[in-house]
Amino acid sequence: MPLAVFALALGAFAISTTEFVILGLLLNVSQDFGISVSDAGFLVTAYAIGVVIGAPLLTPILAKYPRKQVVVFLLALFTVGNVIAVFAPNYETLLFSRVFTALVHASFYGLSSIIASQLVSKDKQARAMSMVFMGATIANIAGAPLGTMIGLEFGWRSTSVACAILGFVAMVGIFILVPKVKSEKPQNIGAEFKTLLQPKVIRALLLTLVGFSGTFTLLTYIAPLLIDVTGFEESNISMMLFIFGLGMAVGNPIGGWLTDKNLTLGLNATLGFLFVVLLAIGLLSSYMIPMYILTFLFGAALFATITPLQVNAMIAAGDAPVMAASFNIAAFNLANALAAAFGGYIIDSSLGITFLPFGAASFALLGLIFAFSTQARTSPANESKQAVSA
Question: How far apart are CA 377 and CA 103, in angstroms?
Fold first, then answer.
C-alpha cells in the first residue's frame, strides 16, 4: 500500500481515538465538573449526534473543493475541536467540543476512503479503503486504552492534548504524502441530495443502518455481559476488549478482500458470519472458554462488515460517491446510537441481559435478509468487481 494510504489511516486513528477514549474517562469528567456519570455519558451520545449532523452539513459544501485540501481542512477542524476540549471551563463547553469535533467524522471517512481507492489499482480498491478503517481498528486496540491510561494518570484534558497532536501530525502527513487526486466536478447540492433519494441508495443506507445495528446492541453492553453472565472479573475486561480489538484487526482486511472479489459475496458472507457469531454468543455466553473465542470472532465479524457496506453505498450512488460515503458513515453512527438504546431497553425489560445477544443477532439476520432482497432487484452489472467511482 502507498504511504499516503497510511497517512489517511493515521487521521482515522486520531478521530476514532477521540470518539472512544471518553468511555474510560467519564468518572473523571463527572468529578471534575461536579456532574453525574449519566450526564457525563451524554458526551458519548453527543459525538454520535455530531457525526449524523456533519454528513449533510459539511459534505455538500466541501464536495466542490479538491479532495486532498478538504481532508487536510477537516483534520484542522478536528485539531481545533480537541484544543477547545483541553481548555473547556465547564461541561457545556466540553459538550460543544465533542459535537464540533464529530462534525468532521463522516466527511473525513467518506473522502479518505475514496482518496485511498484512487491511489491503488482497481483490484485493490476495497483493500485500500479497508486500510483507512484499519486506523479505527487500531484506535480501539491501542489508541483508546492508551489514551485512557494517559487521562487517568495526568487528567482527562491530557488525552485531548494527545488527540490534538495526533490530528496535527496526520494533517501534515496527508499534506506531504497524499498526491493531488482527481476530483470530478460536483453536481449542485439539490442534485446531490436527489441522487441520495434514489431507491437503490436508500436501500444501501438502510442496509447499513439495519445490518450494523446488531453490533452495537451487544458491544455497548459487552462489559456487563461478560461480568454478570459469563462471570469474568472486572480486571479481566481490558484483556477481553484487547482480544476483541485483535479480532477487528483480522476482520477488517478480510472484509476488504471479499469485497474486492465480489460485493455480493462480501455483504452476504460478512452479515451471515456476524449473525452466526452473535447467535453463538447468545447460546454460550455463560461459558468462559467459548467466550474468549467468540469475543475475538465478534470483533472480526464487526469490522469485516464495514468495507462491503461502505462500497455498497458508494456504488449505489453512482455519480455522488462522496455524499454516499459520508452519509453511510452517518448511518453507521445512527445505528450505533439506536442500537445502544435498543440494548438498554432489552436489559431493562423482563428479558434481561442474557437475551441481549439474541436481540443483536436479530438485526444481523434482518440485514442479511434485506441484502438478499436488494440483490434480487440488482443486475449483475452492479456487483463489485466494479471500480469504486473515482
Answer: 34
CA trace torsion 31, 34, 39, 42 (10° rounding): -60
Burial track 192-216 (b if 16+ CB lie within 10 A, e otherwise): beebbeeebbebbbebbbbbbbbbb
Q: Per-residue pLDDT averaged across 278-284, rounded?
A: 96
Digit-coded pLDDT (tens) for 350-362: 888 899 999 999 9
17-44 pLDDT per residue, tens: 998 787 667 678 888 999 876 577 678 7
Name the strand (E) or helix (H) holding 103.
none
pTM for this predicted structure: 0.71
The three-class DSSP label of residue 378 is coil
Q: Where exactly does CATH 1.20.1250.20 map onto the chain?
A: 1-184, 187-384
The CATH code for residues 1-184 is 1.20.1250.20
Cβ-in-10-Å burial (0-12, 13-18, 19+) of 335 comes to buried
DSSP state for residue 143 in the 8-state scheme: I
DSSP 118-141: HTS-GGGHHHHHHHHHHHHHHIII
187-384 domain in CATH 1.20.1250.20?
Answer: yes
| 69 CB neighbour count, 10 Å cutoff | 14
